[in-house]
Amino acid sequence: MEDYNISRGKHFYTIGLSYKKADAEVRGHFSLDETGKKNLLEQAKAEGIDGLIVTSTCNRTEIYGFAQHPFQLIKLLCEHTHGTVEEFEKVAYVYKNKDAISHMFRVGTGLDSQILGDFEIISQIKSAFIDSKDIGVSNPFLERLVNAVIQASKRIKNETGISSGATSVSFASVQYILKNFENPSELNILLFGTGKIGRNTCENLVKHTKNHQITLINRTKNKAEKVAGKFDLTVKDYADLQAEIRQADVLIVATGAQNPTITKDLIFNKKDLLILDLSIPKNVSTDVEELPGVSLIHLDHLSQMTDETLERRKAAIPQAHEIITEMEADFNSWLETRKFAPTIKALKKKLRTMKDAEVDFQRKKIENFNERQAEVLGDRIIQKIMNQFANHLKGDSNSTDESLELIQKVFQLEETAKR
Question: Does residue 25 form part of some domain?
Fold first, then answer.
């Protein structure tokens, strides 16, 4: 990427790990909360990195950014998580330049999601870019790339059937309840955590179970009250968590904490209890299964569920790939223009200098010289020349480097174009 005049970093990389090779425990080691992401971005800025975004979800943690070597980004990730370089190397992937660009398109359009067509990731990529821009580690390349991926995602949603029906981690949890309980509308359901996944789960619960005996608990009570108000549900204080668990048939945990929020000593159940853990890292201690009548299901199990909706979505994959190919080609076409932008800028400056010198010469030589008309005429000729060069460079990507070298040599732009 060093020829494209977009970053001090030599190459554009994607480094990360996902559900494909890393289980929930390992993904938890590399997960980043909002504070962790901010600290990572601040350190990247201090180290002189001028283009980087970071995403961390239940299914993957990834860094997209410019660097001289991918280890710069791997080191950043490991320094701000509980993961080690050795652990990362066992399950990770590293993509470079055009492959890194292609990867973001696949991820952002839901084709690489644990549940096919789960589009929540695109809003997370968008938020990640905003965070980077606020801290000062974004650049025009990243902005253009993120916007291109957002547009591809919108087109795939609107033009294909890949988003038909409801399939996401939050909906999969509701599906599990519907399949395993005869009367889901009569269950006592406790939802602990009202972040994004919690809110989506709550909406799916109300819509598909027709159950209004749902209790919400969140460490910050007013956040739970905002969600509850929308659906006319009950809110309890965080201090009531243990008592509410005792009354529950189903406990859904979506707290997004870095350590378990539900432990064995919180549960004194008098009846069977199903616990669905929708968090990465796991927010429910695995030893709760030692308790009689307690069943624990993690999101990795929920994500493996298949249904008719998912099968229908698979049929839309080829059409989605066509859209991605088109949008990615448009982006790469724009990227090629970045390669010759400094030369075009230098050429325009050189032509204007030549025009100004000629106008000045003719002003002294010709009586009643019309300087305004000369300026207009000169500028129009320059613009036509510039358009010819730009169109040639855009349309002849195979010999762009040779064309740039020739232009720089003919107009003696070598030093100017390098600045």
Answer: yes
Residue ranges of the annotated binding site for substrate are 57-60, 113, 118-120, 124
Cα dihedral sign, 167-170-176-177: negative
CA distance 140 to 101: 14
Give the CATH number, domain containing residue 86.
Answer: 3.30.460.30
Q: Can you tell me the distance from the alpha carbon of 384 to that of 348, in angstroms, rounded to the nearest whole number?
A: 11
Selecting among 52, 58, 67, 267, the annotated active-site residue is: 58
pLDDT tens digits, 66-118: 999 999 999 999 999 999 999 999 999 999 999 999 999 999 998 998 877 77
Q: List, in sequence order, the alpha helices (H) in 236-291.
A: 241-247
328 falls within a domain: no
Domain count, the chain: 3
Is 78 part of the annotated catalytic residue set?
no
- Domain hosting 409: range is 340-418
CA distances from 241 to 244, 266, 296, 345 (A): 5, 8, 18, 64
Separation between Cα atoms, residue 173 and residue 299, nearest integer Å: 8
Hey, what's the torsion of the CAs at 217, 218, 223, 227, to 10 degrees?
Answer: -40
Give me the CATH number covering residue 183.
3.40.50.720
At 203-247, the pLDDT tens digits run 889 989 999 889 999 999 999 999 999 888 999 999 999 999 999
Q: Are residues 150 and 13 in the same domain?
A: yes
- Whether 261 and 152 map to the same domain: the answer is no
